[in-house]
Amino acid sequence: MDKPFSSVAQGFRKRTLVTAKLSAKMGVGVAKSVIKQKAQGVFGGTVGDTGGDDSAIDSEKKDKITKDAIAVALALYQDMDQLKGLVMKFGQMASYMSTQFPPEAQKIIAKLQSDASALPFYEIKTLLTKALGKPVEQVFDTFEAEAIAAASIGQVHKASYQGQAVAVKIQYPGVRDGIASDLSLISKALPMSTMASSLLGVAMDSKSLYQELHDRILEECDYSREAKNQQFAKTCWPNDSSIVIPGIVEDVSSVNVLVSEFMEGQDFYTFRDNASQDEKNKAAETLYRMSFESIFKYAFFNGDPHPGNYLFRSAGEVVFLDFGCVRYFEPELVQSWRGLVRSVRDQDRDQFKRFTREMGFVGNEKKFNWDSHWALYNFILEPVLENKPFTFSKEYKEKGNQLFLYENKNQFSINLPPPLLLVNRLQWGLKTILVDLQATGDFHRVFWEVIDG
Question: Which range has the top average pLDDT, 106-120, 234-248, 416-430?
């Protein structure tokens, strides 16, 4: 753990000052150099790839760029760690998505997932005493002073309660106000965003998308809501040996304290680096199945699928830890979604158009490129269209980046329905993790059992 802090940076001036410093660091020549070298294949990039042949690269130049990138990563980590909240969440996303940083620098940013700076224990005791109405010693049998995890909104300590090992998550003081301040800054850009959409003839509802982001992010600051989300999720897989969800200890949980069963398991990076490929494949199937069963069987989606929210055990068993950012769906939306993926499986373009419209994706009918959208969805469902094993390779991920970001002809004619805002993290979150595991499996069987079951 890094140096402790007393509270999250708050207020418009203080947060924007740190954010400005952060932006400056991200825009320095060092970062540009890293990006350029990534594109040239220095760090295994695919744009103008050299095929991973390091002999083609000047080793001294590569070493210098790596050293500079590490310096940038440290600076970004320190400032994001100071801000916590929404800014740190963006840092968490950058830490596991495909980035322009070499591996040594990316590992530093990855600390934002669960190894950020933590509150000192005396402050934790004060917060808990206020929340529980009693001193910590009178409530818990034991309570470990050092945090076992610290991230964007709170930190976690191991304790025992009435003879049971528990994990106690405590929210940072002022973090909700800090997030609200960050969201306020985003809202100030809405008029320009709405104007740009109008000029481009797009039906994108910026205000509704902002409201969706606002509501889901602030809900994460309500641990009582997270407890309900987690309890609901646990009832969805009551007897599943692979999907493990900790139970909640309700009588000592509150709006800013969440107490749940303590779970053992390997963190993502330890598991990735040490497990056999067979173990990784089994775990990947569990992650994949849980994600799509949650949507198509239980009509919800956990919108924060980053590596720090999982623990891994043997035989494909995965512990799911964080249910703060959950989106529930209306049955009609799920049914249209089901129809959409079936239309791609059946290669029925008329039905595909019907369900694309039903889901609200068509922003400008006259400008909408149906061929591009059809190609994109065939790519999205590529892992499940053929009845054979599929490998989530780096090439597959990079092709997705290319199609979504650079070759998408509907960037200015598509509409993003607010309920589906966080579902983008299936592409940028779940699939990135599966690529990191180099997962191979019968995803065709898993997916269609969920859709047709």
Answer: 234-248
Cα–Cα distances in angstroms (integers) from residue 76 to residues 19, 31, 434, in the given order: 10, 11, 26
* Residue after which a domain boundary falls, among 83, 113, 143: 113
Whether 282 shows a pLDDT value over 90: the answer reads yes
Is 0.70 topped by the overall pTM? yes
The answer to whether residues 153 and 84 touch, using CB atoms and an 8 Å cutoff, is: yes
Residues with Cβ within 8 Å of 48's Cβ and at least 6 positions away in sequence, in order, are 39, 40, 41
CB distance 69 to 105 below 8 Å = yes
Does an H or E element contain 332, and which?
helix 331-345
pLDDT at 341 over 70: yes
Question: 342-400: per-residue pLDDT in tens?
Answer: 999 999 999 999 999 999 999 888 899 999 999 999 999 999 999 999 999 999 988 98
DSSP string, 378-412: HHHTHHHHSSS-EE--HHHHHHHHIIIIIS-TTTT
What is the spatial distance between Cα 44 and Cα 397, in angstroms, rounded to a whole number?
A: 13
| Alpha carbon distance 258, 174 (integer Å) | 17
Domain membership flag for residue 452: yes
Task: Pick the last residue of a domain from 113, 139, 164.
Answer: 113
The whole domain housing 296 covers 264-453
The answer to whether residue 139 sits within a structural domain is no
The C-alpha angle 11, 17, 22, rounded to 5 degrees, equals 125
User: How many structural domains comprise the chain?
Assistant: 2
Q: Which of 42, 60, 59 minimizes the C-alpha distance to 50?
A: 42
| pLDDT of 48 above 80 | no
Q: First CA to last CA across the chain, in angstroms?
A: 46
Q: Would you give the DSSP letter of residue 56?
A: G
CB-based burial label for 150 (10 Å; 0-12, 13-18, 19+): buried
Assess if residue 189 is contained within a domain. no
Contact between residue 278 and residue 220 where contact means Cβ atoms under 8 Å apart: no
In SS3 terms, 162-201 reads as CCEEEEEEEECCCHHHHHHHHHHHHHCCHHHHHHHHHHHC
Is residue 291 assigned to a domain? Answer: yes
